[in-house]
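Need a sequence for this fold. Nothing fancy.
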């Protein structure tokens, strides 16, 4: 996942406008509705044992796309 973001300085007299790169690099909390085309590694800070427990005991929620 990659995106370019345009920023502009809030100081009217400055006038600096620039583009930054925004990139997703790791997952902190997995999506409840994952897209198989999106593959991000889990952060090393994620407690995999706790995540496995949550995934095994999750409750299905109704989902209606907007």
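Here you go.
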């Amino acid at each position: 996942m990659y995106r370019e973001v345009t920023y502009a300085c809030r100081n009217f007299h400055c006038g600096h406008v620039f583009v930054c790169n925004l990139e997703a690099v790791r997952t902190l909390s997995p999506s409840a509705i994952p897209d198989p085309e999106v593959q991000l590694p889990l952060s090393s800070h994620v407690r995999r044992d706790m995540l496995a427990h949550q995934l095994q005991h999750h409750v299905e929620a109704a989902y209606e796309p907007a």
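For context: The chain has one domain: 2-56.
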